[in-house]
């Protein structure tokens, strides 16, 4: 096994194994295609696996054909006289055929198990994706009525105070809900659409609060087509109004900002209202903040987060950080 003899042996081994693998693979695919005609919905046949009942003959025939053809090819490359296994003594034939079939079966079993593991990994990934999508759908189903009830509660209060404004607000609410609930049926939409829906919602709130609610929306044009989950910021905006600006006698300003930091998208909802009060800054556990955290965890895992912090002299800032996804089509 030294020098030239080693490399000659390696050449023979590589050529023969390549021919055996090719022969078995061709027979396997051929048998699968024939069987597929009578059972076109069989997933194993569609993956070119006819089952061990048919693979055993494929291995037997492929191993013998591959060994003899590989021997001829290797001998031709080296300028040797081919020594075929089938032309040897009965003892040589028994030993050669047994060893070849054993190695061929072992190799086939190895690749079969590797493909099964790969198929299981793909199936598990698909199942995890379906579970995550179901979780997102459930969270979305919780968010939509919550947003609707909050908006109707604002409208009910306005009916008693200013009926004419309430009628105008109702017309705007119908248009807003139609656009919002239609958009919420998609898993992602452009950040510009998210800002547009929030602008419409804040117009409704301004009709109720009047000059007590000032709005400042800042969306860089370069981020307008970044894809985000629909209604992601809606609960945070509702919280800012309900718990921050409405309780304040003079109201205040709600700011909605978007910026890019490296490979991350940072979305900020802040107000200069009553603030977080006695609640710890990092422990927002109401429906709105918990909804946002659950959606981020389901959609992005540990790559996204929601942070709450007080503002000086008063107010609150909610910051959503998530990885920059591919942009959506305009």
UniProtKB/TrEMBL annotation:
Residues that span the membrane, as ranges: 6-27, 93-112
Classification via Pfam families: HATPase_c, His_kinase
This protein's record includes keyword Transmembrane helix: yes
GO terms of molecular function: phosphorelay sensor kinase activity
Residue ranges occupied by any Histidine kinase domain in the UniProt entry: 164-326
UniProt keyword terms in alphabetical order: Kinase, Membrane, Transferase, Transmembrane, Transmembrane helix
Domain of life, source organism: Bacteria
Any one cellular-component term (Gene Ontology): membrane
Protein name, per record: Sensor histidine kinase
